[in-house]
Amino acid sequence: MKNIKEIIVGVLLFGIVIASIIYWQATKEVEDPTNVKAAATMRVDELMARDEADIKAINGEIIEVTGIVLANETDATSSTISLGMNEMEVIVCQMDDRHLENMSKLTKGHFVKFRGKLTGQDFDEMMGKTIQMKNCVLVTQ
Questions:
Q1: Residue 74 in 3-state DSSP?
Q2: 18, 77, 88, 133: which has the fewest Cβ within 10 Å?
């Protein structure tokens, strides 16, 4: 009987520790990219010209990308802006929620520079190349 109580207490303590770690990670504040120095600066065409291994090498880094707005999907709580010249080669930027006020003004054809974290890529011969970034901010310098 004593062993069962110890096992139950151990499992409960383990569950509390795991729940605390998950809560801590979920509520951890993301650093504002406005104040972070970019690891690389490039144009959309330069980034698209890189092969998949080169993109993976800088995955997770803060980069700056200059290009033309292809699409802007903005609502009250989020904004996603696509950069590129065609639908087959696109950089998709999930905008940082702290900087949404400037995003609704951007329309197709605007020339912009974004800073954000490179988070992934999808290279498909049929569907084209897509590179994902998150926590993007508009660089106005």
A1: strand
A2: 77
83 and 129 Cβ atoms separated by less than 8 Å: no
- Which amino acid is residue 95, in one-letter code? M
Is 74 in contact with 93 (CB distance < 8 Å)? no
| Cβ neighbour number for residue 38 with a 10 Å cutoff | 16
User: Mean pLDDT in the chain?
Assistant: 84
Question: 103 is written with which tokens?
Answer: 């995003």
Q: With DSSP H G I counted as helix, E B as strand and the rest as coil, what are the percentages for the chain, rounded to 5?
A: 35, 40, 25
Tokens of 59: 């995955």
In the chain, the percentage of residues whose pLDDT exceeds 90 is: 13
Task: Tell me the residue type at 4.
Answer: I
Residue with tokens 């290279």: 123
Burial of residue 135 (number of CB atoms within 10 Å: 0-12, 13-18, 19+): buried
**pLDDT of 55-113, one tens digit each?**
888 888 899 999 998 888 877 777 888 898 888 889 998 887 777 777 777 888 889 99
Q: Please tell me the pTM assigned to this model.
A: 0.70
Question: Tokens 């990670």 identify what position?
Answer: 25
